[in-house]
């Protein structure tokens, strides 16, 4: 069997913090996949579990390389749990080698890459024109909504403005609304990004309807 066509699957970056706060989102994704009759390629983050393990590992003076490996293993544990819950296939490895006729769940697969970067790379490798990023937030805001009550959600945003909103150093366990490095990959390859907390935005976007989250293009 050859590589999946880009109409056969949906690439999704699922933040670990989302899973921790909203475990029911996993079953919502399963229902969405069944309703759309499409295969989901779900890349799962480490979230609070990963950050906890990284914090624990720092006590033993692990190197940055080793801390990244701790983060990857945390995402793989999350991926295993979610693959069982979704009755999906657990996949570990380079998405360029992915050959499947069923939905798959992946964790991180390269040192130094966040979940978003892994998802962006997967979208490129599989020829997907869009990447869905499921977040705790409803979308991208003009400023941090946890600090500013008057923050406004943006329906659309360009990549350059997104970069300005996501400035920060890249370290193991960091948490961005969407990793700027992943955004650069998507911009360079012409891949749109949908950032949302609403699983139903997946079917809405694919059918050309209005979404409740933010479209980055």
Can you give me a brief rundown of this structure?
41% of the residues lie in helices and 17% in strands. It has helices spanning 16-21, 25-36, 47-58, 64-86, 115-126, 159-165, 180-189, 201-206; strands at 9-14, 39-44, 89-90, 104-106, 130-134, 140-141, 153-154, 156-157, 192-196, 214-216. It starts with 8 loop residues before the first strand and ends with a strand.
Description:
By secondary structure, this protein is of the alpha/beta class. The chain has one domain (9-216): Acetylglutamate kinase-like (Carbamate kinase). It is built from eight helices and ten strands. The strands form two sheets. It has an eight-stranded mixed sheet with strand order 3-4-2-1-5-9-10-8. Strands 6-7 form a two-stranded antiparallel sheet. The model is unreliable at 1-5 and 169-175 (pLDDT under 50).
Mean pLDDT: 89
Backbone shape: globular
Total discrete domains: 1
- CATH class membership: Alpha Beta
Tell me the CATH architecture: 3-Layer(aba) Sandwich
In percent, how helical is the residue content?
Answer: 40-55%
Unreliable segments (pLDDT under 50, ≥5 consecutive)?
1-5, 169-175
The strand count comes to 10
Termini separation: 32 Å
Radius of gyration: 16 Å
Largest sheet: 8 strands, mixed
Instruction: Spell the H/E element sequence.
Output: EHHEHHEEHEEEEHHEHE
Helix/strand-derived class?
A: alpha/beta
The CATH superfamily label reads Acetylglutamate kinase-like
Strand content: 15-25%
